[in-house]
UniProtKB/TrEMBL annotation:
It comes from Periophthalmus magnuspinnatus. This is Solute carrier family 2, facilitated glucose transporter member 5. Residues 13-455 form the Major facilitator superfamily (MFS) profile domain. Belongs to the major facilitator superfamily. Sugar transporter (TC 2.A.1.1) family. Glucose transporter subfamily. Keywords: Cell membrane, Membrane, Sugar transport, Transmembrane, Transmembrane helix, Transport. The chain crosses the membrane at residues 7-24, 61-82, 94-111, 123-144, 151-173, 185-206, 271-292, 339-356, 362-380, 401-424, 430-451. GO terms for molecular function: D-glucose transmembrane transporter activity; fructose transmembrane transporter activity. InterPro entries: GLUT, MFS_dom, MFS_sugar_transport-like, MFS_trans_sf, Sugar/inositol_transpt, Sugar_transporter_CS. The keyword Calcium does not apply. It is found in: Cell membrane, Sarcolemma; Cell membrane.
Length: 493
């Protein structure tokens, strides 16, 4: 079964992509272009309202909080409430409701300049974070459950593709000919309201998740109708029987909490892998490289008025690499190892070239090339394959808890980078790359020596690979004693 045989699945990928991953990517990149104008608004507001002229460090602190509060909004729903909301409302209904905070945030952004209120921007960023955080999880779960097995790997990778598309769109709309001006920047930040409206109008055309209809509501007829709409008109009795078997297994195992996940020593390596992979997504230095791209472009002689156009190249570079990853979906272990290894090399070379820029006139051009190579390494590696990992490492009972841990680590990492990165730049300048280098090298080594190949393996088979890798015995175990929900089951392979 190919994607051409499932046209509604292709439509679902686009509709879900613009309502979740796209919003996340756009909200990150769109803040770069109007940063000067927003900081001016912060100072003018304080002068007119309180009669206080803020110092530079105070403005920088408020600006960092405006950027980082997006992460707090994402953490509030994606990590704390996502599982219960998904179970209560269902996938499709929750996706529709999730557009409400995005629409309210867009209205606040549009009115913030007129109202002379940077607090409205803070509130809007928090709401946009809620939308992006819940959207990333719900859209991904919905797509995976709607796609046939053969397409689920590619569907998972499209998350990275739409994040990259969102970043590129934020950069493109931020140029001075469009919305990157002193008068029009609120329209740039409120653009996410338009994409939310688009999902709100088109999502009702899609069915609810077939597995949710069968497993949560017990409606076999609705499940079969949804499968026929998504996959074509044929008999799906076998697929529905597989879903019912999953329901029986889930009922026997129960749904485990985050605390139970943390306490289970039998799956500690899987949990550690999720923490390593998701923390490295934010601590690898990708945002630092994006930040320094402006400085490097200045060094090679690109004027201030053209910096936004040059930055478009970085966004287009990431988008192109993400697109190619969808086509060439290969070994996850190799993709992650190769990606972080190449990123480590680029960070070392970039630090050296940044140091030598004042001594050699042609060195900034080397830095520019290294920036593009670093972004390519990230987009064709960790960016594309990290998100679906918790769903592949854990059984159904632990999947929700694993996704909760992963998204929590991701949002906390993004918040820390947003708050601390400006301080690091001020104190140690481009040597901050060496801090990110530590995380890239550590993750690269972890992938090489502590992480097995997981392609085309079930969670129990992956658990056996982890056990074989981290025990002294050289013999492959013929069975694996797995402990779930306080019981021991012997599973033969």
């Amino acid at each position: 079964m190919t994607g051409l045989e499932c046209p509604l699945v292709i439509a679902a990928i686009f509709i879900c992509g613009i309502g979740g991953p796209y919003q996340y990517g756009f909200s990150i990149s769109s803040m770069t272009s109007p940063s000067v104008f927003i900081q001016e608004l912060v100072n003018i507001t304080c002068v007119e309202r309180y009669g206080v002229n803020l110092e530079k460090w105070q403005i920088s602190l408020i600006w960092s909080f405006i950027v980082s509060i997006f992460c707090m909004g994402g953490l509030s729903l994606s990590a704390l409430l996502a599982n219960s909301l998904i179970s209560k409302f269902g996938r499709k209904k929750l996706l529709l409701l999730n557009n409400i905070p995005a629409l309210i945030g867009a209205v606040l952004m549009l009115l913030s300049k007129t109202a002379m209120s940077f607090e409205m921007i803070m509130a809007a960023r928090f709401l946009q974070g809620m939308n992006a955080g819940l959207g990333l999880i719900t859209n991904t779960i919905y797509l995976v459950e709607c796609a046939p097995k053969r397409l689920r790997g590619a569907v998972g990778v499209t998350v990275a593709l739409f994040i990259s598309f969102g970043k590129f769109s934020g950069q493109l709309l931020g140029i001075s000919e469009l919305f990157g001006t002193r008068e029009r920047w609120p329209w740039l930040l409120g653009f996410t309201g338009l994409t939310s409206l688009l999902q709100l109008v088109t999502l009702p055309l899609l069915p609810e998740s077939p597995s949710f209809l069968l497993l949560a509501t017990g409606d076999q007829q609705a499940c079969e109708q949804a499968l026929k709409r998504l996959w074509g008109d044929r008999n799906y009795q076998l697929e529905m029987e597989e879903m019912l078997k999953e329901k029986v297994m889930q009922k026997n195992a129960g749904t485990q909490t985050v605390l139970q996940l943390l306490r289970n020593h039998d799956i500690r390596w899987q949990l550690l892998s999720v923490i390593v992979i998701f923390s490295s997504l934010q601590l690898c230095g990708i945002n630092a490289v994006y930040f320094y791209s402006y400085e490097v472009f200045r060094q090679v002689g690109i004027g201030e008025e053209n910096l936004r156009y040059a930055a478009l190249g970085t966004g287009l570079c990431e988008l192109s690499a993400s697109s190619s990853l969808v086509i060439q979906y290969s070994s996850k272990k190799m993709i992650l190892f190769r990606g972080y290894a190449l990123m480590s090399v680029m960070l070392v070379l970039l630090t050296i070239t940044m140091y030598l820029q004042k001594h050699l006139s042609w060195m900034p051009y080397c830095s520019m090339v290294l920036i593009f190579l670093f972004i390519l390494s990230f987009a064709s590696g960790p960016s594309g394959v990290s998100t679906p990992v918790p769903g592949e490492l854990f059984t159904q009972a632990y999947k929700s808890a694993a996704f909760t841990v992963g998204t929590t680590v991701n949002w906390i990492g993004l918040f820390c980078v947003g708050m601390l990165f400006p301080i690091l730049v001020e104190k140690i300048d481009y040597f901050c790359f060496l801090i990110f280098l530590i995380f890239c090298v550590s993750t690269c080594l972890y992938m090489r020596f502590c992480f097995p190949e997981i392609n085309n393996l079930s969670p129990l088979e992956i658990a056996a690979e982890f056990k074989k890798m981290h025990t002294k015995s050289e013999k492959t175990p013929s069975s694996l004693l797995t402990k779930y929900n306080g019981t021991i089951q012997e599973t033969k392979f």
